[in-house]
Predict the structure.
Amino acid sequence: MAGIYIHIPFCKQACHYCNFHFSTTQHLLPRMIAAIAKETELRKTYLTETVDTIYFGGGTPSILNSSDIGLLLSKCKQVFNVNPNAEITLEANPDDITEEKLIEWKQIGINRFSLGIQSFVDTELQWMNRSHNAQQAKDCIELIKKYFDNFSIDLIFGSQLLTNGQWQENINIALSFNPPHLSCYALTVEHKTTLGKKVEKNIVTDIDTEKQAQQFEILMQQLKDANYNHYEISNYAKAGFESKHNSSYWQGKHYLGLGPSAHSFNGLSRSWNISNNALYVAAIESNQSVLETETLTPTQQINEYIMISLRTSSGIDLNVVEERWSKEVCDKIVSLSASWITTNHLVLHNKKLQLTQLGKLFADGIASDLFL
Amino acid sequence: MKNIRNFCIIAHIDHGKSTLADRLLEDTKTIGSRDMQAQVLDDMDLEREKGITIKSHAIQINYPYKGEEYILNLIDTPGHVDFSYEVSRALAACEGALLLVDASQGIQAQTISNLYLAIDNNLTIIPVINKIDMDGAMIPEVTDQIVDLIGCKPEEILHASGKSGIGIFEILAAIIARIPAPKGDPQAPLQALIFDSVFNSFRGIIIYYRIMNGTITKGQKVKFIATGQEYDATEIGVLKLGMEAKNHVGCGDVGYIITGIKNAKEVKVGDTLTQSGSMVERINGFEEVKPMVFAGIFPVETDAFEELRDCMEKLQLNDASLTFELETSQALGFGFRCGFLGLLHMEIIQERLEREFNQTVITTVPNVSFIAYTTRKEKIIVNNPAEMPDGTKLDRIEEPYIKAQIITQSDYIGNIMTLCLGKRGNLLNQSYITPTRVELTFEMPLTEIVFDFYDKLKSQTRGYASFDYHPIGYRDADIVRMDIMLNGEKVDALGSLIHRSRAQDFGRKLCEKLKELLTRQQFQISIQAAIGAKVIARENISAMRKDVTAKCYGGDISRKRKLLEKQKEGKKRMRQIGNVEIPQEAFLAVLKLD
């Protein structure tokens, strides 16, 4: 089991909070598609397993023609052993979605959508510099539902503008479409973004963590009531609709990342491509490597396992720890977890350490405490 | 012996002593141009960075003059007020001193105090006006100042520029002509003054000495008078840029000896070295080390205590003015209560522990030494807030006072008056050295100058003030112990001894600073400053509500793991009081108050 991530580093406009790698100029687009296709071939030895998931992320992959996406998909199928029932996800923005395009995407094999909705409040969408409005968001979900039963809605909470009441309303609107999957992210102020600079210059106030905590609690409660499985800190799904691709990150499965800034993992090391479109394209065109690699020490592997699995609903599986590493490592983690169990942030259940609802608010600090 | 000259240089910081020394060494070819670098004698990185001399250094210059070979031993000395002890040791090993005065700055307080020390030691003074080629050189005024101060004739004053190499050979000639050769009896039993020692991890302890009587021979047995211990002189020699081994070092000369001693405690700087079985007396002329400032030094990792002890002992060998004894703190575990010459000295010790011994330490609130009298008429020396008796048992407290001499331009008198009066000082005297330069004498509590006085003085006078002080005994004082409590638990390492009138303001600032430095936890933290049971200042840190990253996908994992690993490292260094975790920076908060 393995996954392929394809990074499409172009956007129409820059959302003020986003620190992913993208460019708002598209003159490199044709060469980029060719380069990613070529990289697929160059890295054919990276994965030996069957590919069960392919994920187009970005950037904004939905700005591509379906023929470009089709080309990249068929390249993957040509080079790798792709499972005929593979989950193939496309990240899409509402303003890119038309019925015509949906039909084409379906034809080339896309079977899951991740929709960048973020909010149903127009003032907030503008404040974030999103390229769509609330009505477009609603329309596109309706349209998606007509052709696809597997899709996810992305929402953002805890922004400086969003009140608790508006957040509740956003959740209600989203739930009214009965989406099989939701990804809900607490807004994070990142350096080198427009928002980050505004906060640093005191033009915008910093995040109110109390409000974010409240909105996270509201979210957890509402989605629990609506029978969603909170299977990862920021991800909620109806049974059977968990994102297979993203889950592979959290289960330590191998994945190949194609395109600028994309990360790959083969169990022992992590590699990442250069985060620069021009340099990426030029290097690939001249058969040069654009990779940086870091080999994980056993301690780093254990720490990653702790950090990632703790965020998931299955938690840290102590049987797995004992199998993959040792009884000593397992005992160490258990002893480090004692104080968090006492304070009701963690539970130890069937040899699994899991976050409680309270613990989910402190996943980072707890993970760091459990690190070796 | 008649061709030996032992001399030192007395100068204020920045008056060009190190540059002049560099030039003397270069022009006499003591150091080849290949080995030459600025501040060549200051071999500690810290000294070059701070542009100051911390340790005494010695170097031998061989110089032919009028057909004869001379041996000139230059003993370089520190200039900062904290290090007057080092100066006094160096002076006792010399017959003469160059008094170096910056042509544009004139005489400074520190120079005067060291000059008096040199005169007390019967040293021949050679006055030199340095930096004569600088813009703003005031040669006539500075000449008058020097004449007034030491009673020399104007024509006895040499003019030089270390930077441009002016006057170097005149200085060398004056050293030979004016400074007397060492006296002493080469046939008498060995009597040598130990003026410094360094620890070398390969050779053990290297002792620097000046022979007053007798000679020293390789392989002979030598005795330290203070300890009565005897050792073999495994290696002896003289100090060039490096060590140069010899079979003999003669009477009047300066040299080194290696005896294989490894333990710091076996060598007492200031002691006298003699030969086995000799009944020679100990040489006087050394000041006892008097620590002025006390603070706790604790290892960051509690289990590193033994290692720190070892390093402190080695450092003490190199810096005899450092004193320490065991201290235990509830918050910080085992550590040392250390005595320092001043705050700069404390800072240097901390940095040397880090750089030379790779020890990261926590330093606690510094304080001076108080005397507490109990109602039962006991006298207790209080070097540590924890030692202060409870209010009910306390009769009275005395604090150390100093006489402070400040020399400045008359324009800054107002600023200095405001500063010193604000520090509970009394003006004792005001005298004009020249129409524009004035010497102000204050008596002040030592505790008031410990923290930031020197920096404030510099900023209030744009650097145009020099400062020196001497202890003048103890006086009654209204000193209180201020405790810091976190969620009701007293943090012993943050306690301080302070004048009652200062407590409120200090307590408030400290609470504010701690609020900045403590990290949020899952519960609210109350920070309180209290005198006895009375809370005088408080701050609250609200509980952390959320500590979780939104996204953790393929590209986020590495970065996130590194961040959390770093966080874990930081937590390891935190100390726990009750349920509150305290980062180490918080223990240094006091030093960072405005």
Chain A touches chain B at residues 5, 185-188, 209-210, 212-213, 216, 232-234, 246, 249-250, 255, 257, 261-265, 270, 272, 294, 300, 303-304, 307-308, 311, 343, 360-365, 367-369, 371 (CB under 8 Å). Chain A has two domains: 2-250, 298-370. Residues 209-225 of chain A form the longest helix (17 residues).
